[in-house]
Design a protein that fits this description.
This protein is of the alpha+beta class and about 700 residues long. It has 25 helices and 20 strands.
């Protein structure tokens, strides 16, 4: 086996040398139709630079470079997609289409963008990934050269598209297993070694990851370096204890799990290093993979992995649907086969995987994207295929990483982009993340006791908020030992502050409206969703000039290409401290949903909070069994699992200052008011109103 691997490595290196040598020649060539010369020369120059960067990293010069040298290199690598240069970049589909026409422009922009993933692979010294993309470029280039030499018309967009299509298909199996290894196998430790072995006082280490580095990452690292070891450990303890308690409260055995996937933003390495040590005490080794940079990993504005400040969110948004180039039934089947084969190869590793520990950030400038007609978009058939793939892939994952055995945790902190009061806001966030969960547990139990008397809950907005919803609850056959709502404190979802349920769909009707909200990093203005029998019946917003554009925006990014989704969750947020902190600093539009969902009632479209775990009995601290773990859609898992799950879950919060009422309505028509005109009026919840009045902070 060792000999085979060594031979394989030598073969890849030989291919790399041939490809990189050929690429360097193209920079000065003019052997294609005049229109395409700038594209191939510029792209070849970039690939040649990537070969130089790979050698720069390989021979250790990266680690000997000065801070100034590293900053210059980092800027140069990302310069082409920065907002000030993006207008004339081939990565911009609008520019590429203007130069080459719609079909060819989209395809070449796709190619150029995929080749930019070499930045990451050069820093990871992944010669195989570099090589296959250089070879793809050479294949496309050679087809143009041959046409020019034979004095015939240049290849058409269909020809280029076919080359790109088969590249994706041919490497799908290899890439699927690679991504799974990054998640499941601790020995895939590029980032982990940097976190654990670097001198974190020397901020040059941030440039070793190959991500775009800004003052956000540098100042965050400085802030952590100024903290005491005890302060850093306290933050890490909150993060890892949330993960451990998530297993404990759901009756899952964490001792059977040996791997945890850490996802975070660069700059927080001191905290992550301490968390790695904590996980070690639990007998768990971490995996830390990079957020998607290639079409195979799923690129998105919303990052999943280790990441840094985006060089240009519009660039990422422009390419979020690039799979439209190749998405068809044949590819979906191939991809699912590859996913299953990858899991089968890594069956043991998958069984030992405990789930992700996620650290989110907030504070970056809010992003409202421009919808470009030149960018790839999925047609109706592809949207259905995409939705079908998500459902099938989720089912495959659950076979190998069983929902009833895994858990997770999520916590969030601000970054310096939040403004001049960053350090003050950071300290306030630490307080929010460490509020007295026992106090909240008691108050939330009072709310649950009231809601459990209801047949349905009525929620109405006030002022300009048009929310008017009737949310049906499951019938409690034995209310003395059953409940509809989970009492959620600081475990998997940090900070404390919500009670939630999976509502009945039948009879759940009305309109959900929010004047201004950010979901997964994207802005929505006047988001309005209409429900009939718990299913999304209509939706709109006012982001764009036409209703068609607004509906497409929501269908792509909230509905995830589904024609409809159920109301998977209804919750009452109780973290008034977080709400008033957001008001005090004017940062409400920059908070992640993790915190925002605790700042008023929220509603999730998509799967329930118990997806794939409906058959596990869950109990509240008072000993009552939570019976509302499914709805009429997730119940279909007994007949057809693909009809039961959508593999998406988007929380939408109505803030307290837009909330007219939240009232529990009993079977006899009696009513119990929980919130009225943005204040908790239920007896026993007065402590929550103190934050509104600038009083006690709940801890």
């Amino acid at each position: 086996m060792g000999i085979n691997k060594e031979a394989e490595k030598k073969a890849v290196m030989e291919r790399y040398r041939l490809a990189s040598a050929r690429v360097k020649e193209i920079v000065a060539e003019k052997c294609v139709e005049e229109t395409y010369v700038p594209f191939f020369r510029k792209t070849a120059a970039f690939l040649s630079e990537m070969a130089d960067v790979y050698e720069y990293v390989e021979d250790g010069r990266l680690y000997r470079a000065s801070m100034e040298e590293l900053k210059k290199l980092n800027h140069k690598l990302y310069e082409d997609v920065l907002p000030e240069h993006y207008q004339n970049s081939f990565a911009n589909p609008s520019y590429a289409v203007a130069v080459f026409g719609t079909d060819m422009g989209r395809s070449l922009s796709f190619l150029y963008t995929e080749l930019r993933s070499l930045i990451a692979f050069a820093f990871e010294k992944d010669v195989a990934e570099i090589t296959i993309r250089m070879e793809l470029f050479l294949e496309v280039y050679t087809s143009f050269v041959c046409a020019w030499e034979e004095k015939r018309q240049a290849p058409g967009a269909g020809d280029v598209r076919q080359m790109l299509y088969w590249f994706v298909c041919d490497y799908t199996a290899q890439e699927a297993e690679k991504r799974l290894r990054e998640m499941l196998c601790p020995e895939e430790d590029f980032a982990l070694r940097l976190i654990m072995d670097s001198d974190l006082e020397d901020l040059r280490y941030l440039y070793y990851f190959g991500e775009y580095i800004t003052e956000n990452e540098l100042e965050t690292a400085r802030h952590f370096n100024a903290m005491s070891a005890d302060a850093v450990k306290k933050l890490a303890d909150t993060y890892t204890e949330g993960y451990r308690i998530g297993f404990e409260v759901t009756g899952k055995d964490i001792s059977r799990k040996k791997t945890v996937n850490i996802r975070y933003c660069l700059g927080f390495e001191r905290m992550i290093r301490s968390a790695v040590e904590n996980f070690g005490l639990l007998g768990m080794k971490p995996t830390v993979y990079r957020a998607g940079v290639s079409i195979f990993q799923g690129k998105s504005v919303d990052k999943n992995g280790f990441f840094s400040t985006s060089a240009n969110k519009q660039y990422e948004f422009d390419h979020k649907d690039d799979e439209a180039l190749y998405l068809d039934k044949q590819y979906v089947n191939r991809r699912l086969e590859a996913l299953r084969a990858g899991y089968e190869t890594l069956k043991k590793e998958a069984s030992l995987f405990g789930g992700p520990a996620v650290m989110e950030i907030f504070g970056e400038e809010p992003f409202s994207p421009e919808a470009k007609e030149e960018a790839f978009t999925l047609d109706d058939g592809q949207q259905k295929l995409s939705a079908q793939y998500r459902a099938a892939a989720g089912a495959i994952q659950n076979e190998y990483i069983k929902g009833e055995e895994r858990s997770f945790t999520i916590i969030a902190f601000p970054v310096p982009a939040i403004g001049d009061k960053y350090r003050e806001i950071f300290d306030e966030t630490v307080k929010i993340n460490t509020l007295d969960y026992k106090l909240y547990q008691g108050i939330q139990q009072t709310i649950i006791d009231a809601l459990d008397q209801a047949v349905y809950v009525r929620i109405k907005g006030m002022g300009g908020n048009r929310t008017d919803l009737k949310v049906m609850l499951h019938r409690l056959e034995h209310p003395e030992k059953e409940t509809n709502f989970e009492n959620c404190v600081a475990d998997v979802n940090i900070p404390v502050g919500e009670v939630f349920t999976s509502p009945r769909l039948t009879g759940t009707d009305g309109v959900l409206h929010v004047g201004h909200v950010f979901l997964d990093g994207l802005e929505y203005r006047n988001l309005e969703i209409t429900f009939r029998d718990g299913m999304v019946a209509d939706y709109t917003c006012t982001n764009f000039d036409t209703e068609e554009e607004n509906k497409k925006y929501i269908k792509d990014n909230v509905m995830f290409h589904h024609d409809t989704l159920p109301l998977g969750e209804f919750a009452v947020g109780t973290n008034t401290v977080a709400y008033m902190t957001a008001k005090k600093y004017g940062i409400g539009n920059r908070l992640p949903i993790l915190i925002a969902e605790k700042m008023g009632p929220h509603f999730a479209v998509g799967d329930t909070c118990y997806s794939y775990e409906e058959d596990i009995m869950t109990y509240n601290p008072d000993g009552k069994a939570i019976i509302a773990r499914e709805n009429e859609i997730s119940a279909l898992r007994r007949e057809d699992r693909e009809k039961a799950y959508f593999n998406c879950h988007t929380d939408i919060t109505v803030p307290y200052d837009e909330l007219g009422e939240l009232t529990a309505v009993k079977e006899d028509g009696g009513e119990i008011a929980v919130i009225r005109e943005g204040r908790f009026v239920l007896e026993g919840c007065g402590e929550l109103n103190k934050a509104f009045d600038g009083g006690a902070r709940g801890g």
